[in-house]
Specification:
By secondary structure, this protein is an alpha/beta fold. The chain has 13 helices and 10 strands. The radius of gyration is 19 Å and the shape is globular. The two termini are 24 Å apart.
Length: 334
């Protein structure tokens, strides 16, 4: 994708409102963050800037967004600017009253994280007893309030063989989408990689099962965010971009305002308070590099490169030091 094609603004910004969290998840990328959090007035001004630039959606994360005292005010302001407002939450603090308040504040969608259909496995992984039951209860409250819901599961060794059960749970609770995220090697995810990550062969087998399941899921959208799926040679939905969408259709902003290509690439390319987002979007050297990846190593002779563009840039950077190197999850041996 050349810059001549570049959309004028990120379609979505994944925005960490805070670093604080009430959980201690084994794979969390953000618990290592120690930066300051922007105050409400500053954040409102930042929302004004991104809306004026043409950003269409903001997805709040953290930390746990519900721990931010002015979350409802921030969401309400963003929604008043015609931004589509959503968030990811662990669901623990989301009761019936809170769900109603989220609806009133303008939330279009809320994603709840669930690591296993098995309550004991999920609670142990998240470090909080009762978190599984409260996550599922949150889905019910959100549905009652009329907010579109999704479930997000990070695939790793604890749930590799539980795909059917997770799909059944998503159906039972009436979510519109099940996000099956690939394991990222950032923060605690990097520290616990050897225990939690799958081998390339395991990823290949999992995605074959998952793509077969997707074909049978007329009532539930199964969503994947992993470019290496292109290596299966199966037909996939046409995407606006090849490879990863990070830095092409989306950006991430940390709680202190620092801008990164995605939440899993800890390279700061600007700050939303101090810098012109349009300038960063068009000209940041790392974004240019991500939009014009070059095949290194085995990617140079791979028939799938034009579709996957080397896979996940964040994983390649974390484990090899260069976004152009092959994604370590890739199972292809040319």
């Amino acid at each position: 994708m050349g810059n001549e094609w570049l959309v004028k603004a990120p379609l979505t910004i994944n925005w960490a409102l805070n670093n604080s969290c009430n959980f201690a998840c084994r794979h969390c990328y953000s618990r290592v963050e120690t930066g300051e959090e922007l105050d409400g007035d500053t954040l409102r001004g930042c929302f004004d800037k991104v809306a004026k630039m043409g950003v269409m959606a903001v997805n709040f994360g953290g930390g746990e967004p519900l721990l931010r005292a002015d979350l409802l005010e921030m969401a309400s302001h963003a929604a008043s600017l015609k931004l589509r407002v959503s968030m990811n939450s662990n669901g623990y603090l989301l009761d019936r009253a809170k769900a109603g308040e989220l609806k009133q504040a303008g939330f279009a969608a809320v994603g709840i994280s669930l690591d296993s259909h098995d309550a004991a496995v999920h609670d142990r992984f998240r470090g909080v007893e009762g978190s599984h039951a409260r996550a599922l209860a949150a889905l019910g409250f959100l549905k009652e309030a009329g907010i579109r819901t999704s479930l997000s599961t990070v695939i790793c060794t604890i749930n590799l063989d539980s795909l059917d059960e997770i799909i059944a749970l998503a159906r039972q609770y009436g979510v519109s989408r099940l996000n099956l995220h690939n394991f990222k090697c950032a923060g605690h995810g990097l520290a616990n990689k050897d225990e939690l990550d799958l081998s390339p062969a395991q990823w290949q087998a999992f995605y074959r099962r998952a793509m077969a399941a997707k074909d049978k899921c007329a009532d539930l959208e199964l969503s994947f965010d992993d470019p290496v799926i292109a290596s299966l040679g199966l037909p996939t939905e046409s995407s606006l971009v090849k490879g990863s969408v990070c830095g092409k259709l989306s950006l991430a902003i940390k709680a202190n305002g620092d801008i990164t290509p995605c939440g899993f690439i800890p390279v700061v390319i600007g700050n939303i308070v101090r810098d012109d987002l349009g300038e960063v979007w068009r000209n940041a050297p790392l974004l240019t590099k991500m939009r014009h990846k070059e095949p290194h190593g085995k990617c140079g002779t791979c028939d799938h490169y034009s579709d996957c563009l080397g896979g996940c840039s964040a994983r390649a950077l974390a484990l090899t030091g260069d976004i152009n190197n092959p994604d370590p999850h890739c199972w292809v041996e040319p």
